[in-house]
């Protein structure tokens, strides 16, 4: 049948099939000049054709995919076929006298535009004792089958990750075949860039270096072919060869640097205060504090990591920091920090397990205090990814469970390491001042970073649920303050408990994520547009530079970079002068589109900054802490920018 820009046929290599034997059938596409159809990995765009085969009087195998060619289209690269192509499949003749195959087809043919197509084709063949072949079609199928890969290994093949976004494949062909004649195609389009990999030949060995867009897949199939005479599909277990040691180092270092992030300071102020109190008890008391704090950090990181991986295995598109995408979690943290701040100011002295668990010492719950501070530090600090954390978290989102959990463990150890070292090293005790009356003033001072954290969390809540959060969350804080105040006024315990329950459960039941249009979030500057994949592709087709800011309201690092760099007059003028399309991907609330976009760059957290240079070229990922010089460097001639 004829369709726009293509002629589609259902073919059989035999005019008559032999009973109980196999025959090659196929769906053939004859395309208009310059139009193409796709391979099973279509590349940067497009879609592979779909085949639904129903056989009456026999059985059919899966359609096979001949070796494709790379089809550049502007800055994109696709895998597919031009001219004519047959997708072959085997049909086994049954015991009847005839076999009938019905093929329901869907396809996409593209040139400068794409046109979808649909068809249902039927073909019957007689079944006799001996087959009768069609010589012309038999030759066509033979030529196609030479381009269908076998599973036999054509030589020695090994692979390893040079970095979370760079994969090296090394091949030594068997026999005396010329290594320069081999090409390679990644089957998994979600893990590897379809562009021609960098190739190096050393003697009989050839090495390809791919850009990986998601680190460490479990298995990576490849097509390899030589002189258009042979093709082989080979599967590697790439995860075993990924640079796990390097990722663990990045994770540990990123966890340590996280202590310098402003989101961690309010929690560390609690820990520092308790350490100074314990310094008077000697090294044993200080060591106990450090070990329990580290235990709280480790347990919380591992629990969050386990939940993260379980949701991932369940098919959820999820990223790190998912806990602060929940308005209820943000509200509970507001209440906890508010109560801690009031306690620091001496509004109340409450010896309950909750307050001691959260970091306030008491004689009855010494262990819970240090452990709880560790838990709290992870909950608030972990979403603010700092330098080196992005690559490690991106790898954890794709690695198998055991190495992924080891990365979470390394992050936890890095976060806890400074406090643990202070508590365990012999010189740590000397670094802490002696306890005294001055500590009461310091405790009151530490209340104000906690109040600042409450304001930040309140602002995050407004972004998530809209203006309703001002009244609901504010009412919760008011009721909580009232309940804490009346403790010393002789009220019955039941009244205090009732007020606290109303303060916590009332607003929590009202907090529901609003639609974007209803959100109270401040609008992005007019120069920035919402992230959109099709708009990105259109800009790339026009050879226009694009800068993408993947951000979230609960990410303090993101907000700092905005105010200090991205939304300054100097940066905006530089972007304007170079005609850069500015996009913002807001991840404050759960957004599957943003989660998948992050995963495409091997990331599972924000901030992420991506720059596509004008005139083409590979996207460039910027560090998580920005400076103005980094933005200026994008437009230097050596970086592929424009002046």
Structure commentary:
The chain is an alpha+beta fold. The chain has 4 domains: 2-146, Immunoglobulin-like (Sandwich), CATH 2.60.40; 155-236, Immunoglobulin-like, CATH 2.60.40; 244-511, no CATH class; 529-634, Glutaredoxin. Helices cover 40% and strands 26% of the residues. Strands 1-2-4-10-7 form a 5-stranded antiparallel sheet, with helices on one face. Strands 6-11-12-3-13 form a 5-stranded mixed sheet. A 5-stranded mixed sheet has the order 21-23-22-24-25, with helices on one face. Helix 5 runs antiparallel to helix 13, helix 11 (438-465) runs antiparallel to helix 12 and helix 12 packs antiparallel against helix 13 (493-510). The longest helix has 31 residues, at 283-313.
Give the amount of beta strand, in percent.
25-35%
- Largest sheet data: 5 strands, antiparallel
On the 0 to 100 scale, the average pLDDT is 79
Weakly predicted, low-confidence segments: 237-242, 351-367, 515-522, 639-643
Cα Rg: 31 Å
Q: How many independent structural domains?
A: 4
Tally of contiguous helical segments: 18
């Amino acid at each position: 049948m004829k369709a726009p820009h293509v002629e589609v046929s259902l073919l059989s290599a035999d005019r008559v099939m032999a009973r109980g034997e196999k025959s090659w059938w196929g769906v053939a596409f004859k395309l208009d000049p310059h139009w193409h159809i796709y391979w099973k990995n279509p590349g940067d765009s497009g879609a592979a054709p779909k085949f639904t085969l129903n056989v009456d009087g026999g059985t059919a195998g899966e359609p096979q995919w001949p070796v494709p060619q790379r089809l550049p289209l502007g800055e994109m690269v696709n895998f597919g076929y031009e001219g004519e192509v047959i997708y072959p499949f085997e049909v086994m003749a049954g015991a009847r006298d005839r076999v009938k195959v019905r093929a329901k087809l869907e396809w996409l043919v593209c040139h400068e535009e794409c046109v979808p197509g649909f068809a249902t084709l039927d073909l019957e063949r007689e079944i006799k004792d001996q087959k009768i072949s069609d010589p012309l079609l038999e030759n066509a199928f033979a030529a196609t089958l030479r381009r269908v890969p076998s599973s036999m290994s054509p030589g020695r093949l090994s692979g390893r990750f040079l970095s979370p976004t760079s994969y090296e494949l090394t091949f030594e062909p068997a026999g005396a075949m010329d290594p320069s004649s081999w090409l390679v195609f990644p089957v998994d389009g979600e893990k590897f860039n379809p562009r021609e990999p960098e190739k190096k030949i050393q003697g009989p060995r050839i090495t390809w270096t791919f850009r990986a867009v998601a680190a460490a897949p479990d298995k990576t199939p490849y097509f390899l072919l030589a002189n258009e005479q042979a093709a082989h599909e080979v599967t590697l277990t790439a995860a075993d060869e990924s640079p796990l040691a390097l990722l663990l180092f990045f994770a540990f270092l990123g966890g340590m640097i996280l202590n310098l992030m402003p989101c961690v300071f309010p929690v560390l102020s609690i820990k520092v205060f308790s350490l100074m109190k314990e310094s008077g008890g000697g090294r044993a008391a200080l060591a106990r504090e450090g070990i329990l704090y580290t235990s709280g950090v480790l347990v919380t990181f591992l629990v969050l990591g386990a939940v993260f991986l379980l949701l991932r295995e369940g098919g959820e598109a999820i990223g790190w920091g998912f806990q602060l995408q929940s308005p209820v979690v943000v509200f509970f943290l507001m209440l906890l920090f508010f109560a801690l701040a009031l306690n620091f100011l001496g509004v109340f002295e409450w010896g309950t397990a909750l307050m001691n668990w959260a970091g306030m010492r008491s004689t009855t719950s010494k262990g819970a205090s240090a452990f709880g501070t560790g838990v709290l530090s992870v909950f608030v600090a972990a979403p603010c990814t700092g330098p080196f954390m992005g690559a490690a978290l991106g790898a954890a989102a794709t690695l198998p469970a055991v190495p992924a959990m080891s990365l979470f463990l390394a992050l936890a150890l890095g976060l806890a390491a400074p406090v643990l070292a202070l508590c365990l090293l012999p010189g740590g005790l000397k670094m802490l001042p002696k306890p005294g009356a001055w500590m009461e003033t310091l405790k009151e001072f530490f209340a104000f970073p906690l109040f600042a954290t409450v304001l930040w969390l309140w602002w995050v809540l407004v972004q998530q649920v809209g203006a309703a959060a001002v009244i609901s969350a504010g009412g919760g804080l008011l009721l909580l303050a009232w309940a804490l105040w009346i403790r010393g006024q002789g009220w019955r315990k039941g009244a205090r408990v009732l007020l606290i329950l109303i303060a916590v459960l009332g607003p929590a039941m009202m907090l529901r994520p609003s639609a974007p249009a209803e959100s109270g979030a401040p609008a992005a500057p007019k120069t920035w547009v919402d992230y959109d994949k099709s708009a990105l592709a259109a800009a790339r087709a026009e050879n226009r530079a694009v800068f993408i800011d993947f951000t979230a309201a609960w990410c303090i690092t993101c907000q700092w970079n905005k105010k200090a760099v991205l939304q300054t007059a100097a940066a905006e003028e530089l972007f304007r002068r170079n005609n850069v399309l500015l996009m913002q991907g807001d991840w404050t609330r759960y957004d599957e589109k943003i989660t998948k976009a992050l995963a495409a760059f091997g990331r599972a957290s924000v901030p992420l900054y991506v720059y596509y240079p004008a005139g083409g070229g590979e996207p460039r990922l910027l560090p998580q802490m920005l400076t103005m010089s980094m933005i200026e460097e994008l437009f230097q001639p050596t970086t592929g920018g424009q002046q």
